[in-house]
Amino acid sequence: MTSHSDQRKFFHLMLFVVTVVFGWILFPLFGAIFWGTILAVLFLPVQRRMLGRLRGRRNLAAIATLALIMLIVILPLTLVVGMLTQEISTALVRFRADLPQLTIAFQQLLDRMPANVHRLMDLAGVQDVNAIQQKLADGAAQIGRLVAVHLLSIGQNTAQLLVSFGVMLYLLFFLLRDGMILGTMVRRAIPLDERHKSQLLRQFTTVVRATVKGNIAVAVVQGLLGGFIFAVLGIQGFVLAAVVMAFLSLLPAVGAAVVWVPVGVWLLASGEVWRGVVLFAFCGTIVSLVDNVLRPILVGKDTKLPDWVVLISTLGGMSLFGLTGFVIGPLIAALFIASWNIFTRLRDDDANQADAG
Burial, 354: exposed, middle or buried (Cβ in 10 Å; 0-12, 13-18, 19+)? Predict the structure, then answer.
């Protein structure tokens, strides 16, 4: 007869193997599953309200919530991606055409600088205008080739993208409809006491909602404001600038200033003083105010993650998982800290029990 202990060991081994293999099978659809789960967590309160208004009809409530997600998230994102692709292509063509004029303006700017600045630029190796022009031209050509390769890749993988998109929507429907039931099942399966389960699940949902809802809302507002002032001032490529500013605002200690500060300096140096002053005034007050006021309101201090942890986990996550990493990185960091806090608390409890015994 097989002992109860052997049966349990075999079952744990089988459970581990089956779980790993199942994860391996699902890995090709990781992006679709991940974003379906994130959107379900984010819109679960909306699903609950829909469920109450539709008198408990779960299918209809999930369909209504899914339609709302399509309207306010997926459709605008698709339009922005299309506009951005066209903007990048136009900007590259315009940059190649304007490169001689930019080189002349840069030479004029160098001529107006004092001798001390010239010596520093000589040490830095940025005094040779022709070499700089060649580097800029080579950089533009490389960017153009990179964009062309990505566009070709997207065109070749259209079927795969459509499949992933369909899987995400299909999964999202069932996660919205059955999310509370699945949440209860996951909660029961976690082999921890209720206090530690609550801490882990609360940390997970808090980080997801803070990262996606708060940070993306701040990024969108900053990008829209930045694109607006670029368009008002007649600065070309305002769609591209808006998207880059929105993307950079996701990174703590970096922010949208990486875009508007160099543009403002260039405007001032090229004689467009009033446009440079307006850009600095608007972005330095309104755009920065959004980050200082809106982010604490939407994100808050619930994540309890230092800015430096958020920064390195975001950069590390994006280097491993691409754009999805801006959510995965802070999420793993938060769960890492929460897990070690639970481990420390359990160890202290064992030590106290040993002392009491």
Answer: exposed
Q: Which residue carries 């990048």 as its tokens?
A: 88
Q: For 321, how many CA atoms within 13 A lie in the half-sphere containing its CB? A: 23
Last residue of a domain, one of 141, 170, 189: 189
| 226 found inside a domain | yes
- Mind giving me the DSSP string for 205-224? HHHHHIIIIIIHHHHHHHHH
Distance from C-alpha of 211 to C-alpha of 215, rounded to nearest angstrom: 5
Domain boundary among 165, 189, 213: 189
DSSP string, 145-172: HHHHHHHHHHHHTHHHHHHHHHHHHHHH
- For the entire predicted model, the pTM comes to 0.65
212 and 241 housed in the same domain: yes
Cα(151)–Cα(148) distance, rounded to whole angstroms?
Answer: 5
In a domain? residue 15: no
CA distance 84 to 323: 16
Cβ proximity of 275 and 260 under 8 Å? no
Can you give the residue range of the structural domain that contains 54? 30-189
Asked if residues 212 and 40 have their Cβ atoms less than 8 Å apart, the reply is no
16 in any annotated domain: no
Return the structure tokens found at 65. Answer: 């919530």
Give ∠ CA 312-326-265 in degrees, rounded to 5.
75
pLDDT tens per residue across span 114-157: 666 666 656 655 555 555 555 555 555 555 555 555 555 545 45
In a domain, 210, yes or no: yes
Closest CA to 335 of 207, 148, 163, 168: 207
